[in-house]
Amino acid sequence: MNSILKTSSLVFLTIFLLTLTINKTSIINIENFYYPIYTEWFSILSFVFIYSSIAIGDIIYFVFPLFVIIYFFRIERRRDKLYFIIKIPIIIYCFFYWSWGFNYNLKSEFESLKTNDYSKEELYSTTQYYIKKTNDLQIALSKTSQEKVESKLSFFQVKNECIKSIKKSNWMFENKQIHSFPVKKSLFSTPLSYMGFSGYINPFTLEANINYNIPDISIPVTISHEIAHQIGYAFEDEANYIAIETLSKSENNYLRYSGHLMAVQYLLAEIRKIDPELHKLYIKNLNVGVIKNIQQKNEYYLKYQNKYESFFKKNYDIFLKINNQKAGIKTYSLVVDLLINNYQSKI
Question: In terms of C-beta distances under 8 Å and separation of at least 24 residues, what long-range contacts does 275-283 make, across chains too?
C-alpha cells in the first residue's frame, strides 16, 4: 500500500513539475507539442457536451466545491488533510493548463497586425469606415435611422448563424480537427452580470457559456468571441477581432451589425482618449438608432454596476497578465490595432 502511495505521489509531482515547466519556459515548442493534443481533447469534449443544452461546466463549478468540502471533513488524519489542501489547487492548475490554458503560450497569427504603429489619420479613416457600415446596416434592419435594431432570432438561431460565419473563415481551421462548438446559456448569468462579464469558456469542459442577461445585440459578438477561444485563440484582442471579422462575413445583417457596432465602440473609445471634442463630432455622425443600441448596452451595465465589480475585474486583470497578456484587461481594447491595420491593408 505504501509503495502505491509513493508511486502515485511521484506521478502527481512529475505532472505538476512538467506543467509548470511548460507554462513558464520555452523548453518545448508549444505549437507542435500541445495544439494537436488540444484539438483531440476538444473534439472529445465537444462530442460529449454538444447534445446538452445545459451548461455542464457550470454544474461542475457548483458540485465540485461541495465534493471537496465533504471529502475534506471525512479525512481523519491532520497530515492527510494538509496533503489534500495542497493537492486540490495543484490538480486544478494542471487540469486547467492541459485542458485549455496552454493556448496562452501559442504564438499569435496576428503578430503582423499588432504593430501599434498607426497614425491618427488612420484611426479616423478606419472609424469613418465602420461608422458608415454600421449606419447602413442599422437602416437596412430598422428601415429608419431613428429606431434601434432589434431581432426576433432565438438564442439557438443566433448561435447557429455565428457558427456558420466562423466556419466561412477557412484559415482558422487549417490543420485543425475542430468542427462542433458547444455554446450554452450560462446558469451563472446573473452573477456574471454583477462581475461584469458577458461570457466565458469553461476551461474544463470547453463549453462556451454566454451570459443571457446581456442585450440581445451583444449576443452574436459574445458567442463569436467565445468560439474563437474554443478554437484556441486565447488572447482577448484576437478573440474580439475574430468576432468582428467573422460576423462581417455573415449573410445575416443582424450579426454583421452586432460585429460592426462593437468595432465602432472600441474605435470611438480610442478617439475619446486622444481628442474628446472630436469624439463628440463622431458621435453626431451615428444614426439615432445606432446611438439607441449603444445606450441599450450602457443601461445594462449601469443596471448591474456594483462596488464588487472592480474586485473581480482586478483579479481577472492579474490573471491575464500572468498568462502572457501584458496589458491585462486592457487587452480587449487592443483590438483597435488589429482593426486599423487590417483596414489599412485593404485600401
Answer: 275/120, 278/124, 282/127, 282/131
Quote the pLDDT of residue 323.
92
Alpha-helical runs (H) found in the chain: 2-24, 30-33, 35-49, 56-74, 78-99, 120-142, 155-167, 189-195, 219-231, 236-248, 253-274, 276-284, 288-304, 309-322, 335-345
Query: pLDDT of 57-113, one tens digit each?
Result: 999 999 999 999 999 999 988 888 998 998 999 999 999 999 999 999 988 888 877
- Say yes or no to pLDDT of 3 above 70: no
Q: For helices 35-49 and 78-99, what crossing angle results, to 10°? A: 100
For the chain, the residue count is: 347
Q: Could you give the C-alpha distances from 303 to 71, 185, 193, 261, in angstroms and in order? A: 39, 20, 9, 21
Q: How many Cα atoms are found within 13 Å in the side-chain-facing hemisphere of 114?
A: 17
For residue 101, the tally of other CB atoms under 10 A from its CB is 19
Q: Look up residue 17 and give its three cell numbers.
A: 513539475
Cα–Cα distances in angstroms (integers) from residue 330 to residues 27, 121, 191, 342, in the given order: 29, 23, 22, 20
Contact (CB, 8 A) for 243 and 221: yes
pLDDT tens digits for range 167-187: 888 777 665 667 789 999 999
Domain positions in the chain: 2-105, 111-345
Q: Which of 90-104, 144-158, 288-302, 332-346 has the lowest mean pLDDT?
A: 332-346
Rounded CA-CA distance 157/170 in Å is: 22
pTM higher than 0.85, yes or no?
Answer: yes
Cβ partners under 8 Å of residue 325, min gap 6: 104, 235, 236, 331
